[in-house]
Amino acid sequence: MANLPLDVARPLERSVISALALAKIKPIRGREYFPASALPVILDIADHYPIPKRADVAKAA
């Protein structure tokens, strides 16, 4: 996923990191590098994360 606005990218990242913590998958380096076994969890969250259309975001602001 590229070019996500910050109002979507940061919550998505927090959701992924939280889900990995719940699944007891720990980073292998620092806070952001996870083992390859974490990839299915990461992709599942990213694929199903509700990303609003730009028009919906403009209405909410």
What's the order of the H and E elements? HHH
Radius of gyration: 13 Å
Shape: elongated
What are the segments in which pLDDT stays under 50 over at least 5 consecutive residues?
Answer: none
Number of strands: 0
Helix-and-strand structural type: mainly alpha
Multimeric status of the protein: single chain
Kindly report the average pLDDT value. 83
**What percent of residues are in strands?**
under 5%
Major sheet details: none
Distance between the first and last residues' Cα: 23 Å
Q: Count of DSSP helices?
A: 3
Helical proportion, percent range: 55-70%
Q: What's the domain count?
A: 1
Q: Briefly, what is this?
A:
This protein has one domain (7-60). Helices cover 56% and strands 0% of the residues. The chain has helices spanning 6-22, 39-48, 54-60.
What would you say this structure looks like, in words?
The chain has one domain. The longest helix is centred in the N-terminal third of the chain and has 17 residues. By secondary structure, it is mostly helical.
Summary keywords:
about 55% helix, mainly alpha, about 60 residues
List the helices and strands and how they pair.
Layout: H1 6-22, H2 39-48, H3 54-60
